[in-house]
């Protein structure tokens, strides 16, 4: 149980950062906004864990070949779009975490690793229902905290929050790509 909770916390870190940025961008932490954003992040995280578990060993080699590139591409695209729009001083921000398409894209991009986790759990014959539920609950809790904290921090900081948010999204994408390419090769060299 402790390992599953630790795994859930690790998986939810990217969602936490997106939630912080989202909270700062929306500027208010009404219950409905928290439920929408945190709910989407948690639901996709849980769903992709279950998906990975069902896919199992057969599909593993295909997912591992491109998952990091997909996450990198989505996050960089959204991050650059936010930065460019902020620099043009557009009144309507392209980073609207309450927009279904934007949130779905972010949720998928930050949850692709959950597919690999689900896949790993299937390889060691772990039943998926409890781990997926724990992953969903932990992601929801951490994302809710992130939205509320991001909102409060965004109100106190008089920075161009959209530019900061765009940079953070790009950095998350680069981090995912780095972990799956450079770090993976370094790990393989040690074996």
Please explain how this structure is put together.
This protein is mainly α and 191 residues long. The chain has helices spanning 2-26, 31-87, 100-123, 129-156, 161-180, 182-190. The protein is 85% helix and 0% strand. Helix 1 crosses helix 2 and helix 1 runs antiparallel to helix 3 (100-123). The protein is globular and about 50 Å long. The model has no long low-confidence stretch (mean pLDDT 80). The chain crosses the membrane at residues 43-62, 69-87, 128-149, 161-182. Probably functions as a manganese efflux pump.
Q: Which features does this protein show?
A:
single chain; 191 residues; mainly alpha
What integer value in Å does the Rg equal?
A: 17 Å
Number of discrete helical segments: 6
Strand content: under 5%
Distance between the termini: 28 Å
Q: Average pLDDT across residues?
A: 80
Structural class determined from secondary elements: mainly alpha
**How many strands, what sense, and barrel or not for the largest sheet?**
none
Low-pLDDT windows of residues: none
């Amino acid at each position: 149980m402790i390992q599953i909770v630790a795994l859930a916390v690790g998986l939810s870190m990217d969602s936490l950062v997106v939630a912080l940025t989202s909270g700062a961008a929306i500027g208010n932490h009404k219950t409905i906004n928290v439920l929408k954003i945190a709910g989407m992040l948690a639901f996709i995280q849980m769903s992709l864990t279950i998906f990975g578990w069902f896919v199992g060993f057969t599909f593993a080699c295909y997912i591992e070949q491109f998952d990091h590139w997909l996450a990198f591409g989505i996050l960089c695209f959204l991050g650059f779009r936010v930065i460019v729009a902020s620099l043009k001083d557009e009144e309507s921000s392209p980073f609207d975490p309450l927009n279904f398409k934007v949130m779905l894209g972010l949720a998928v991009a930050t949850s692709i690793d959950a597919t690999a986790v689900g896949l790993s759990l299937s390889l060691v014959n772990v039943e998926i229902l409890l781990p997926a539920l724990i992953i969903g609950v932990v992601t929801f809790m951490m994302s809710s905290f992130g939205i509320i904290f991001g909102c409060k921090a965004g109100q106190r900081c008089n920075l161009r929050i959209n530019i900061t948010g765009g940079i953070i999204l790009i950095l998350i994408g680069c981090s995912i790509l780095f972990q799956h390419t450079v770090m993976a090769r370094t790990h393989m060299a040690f074996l």
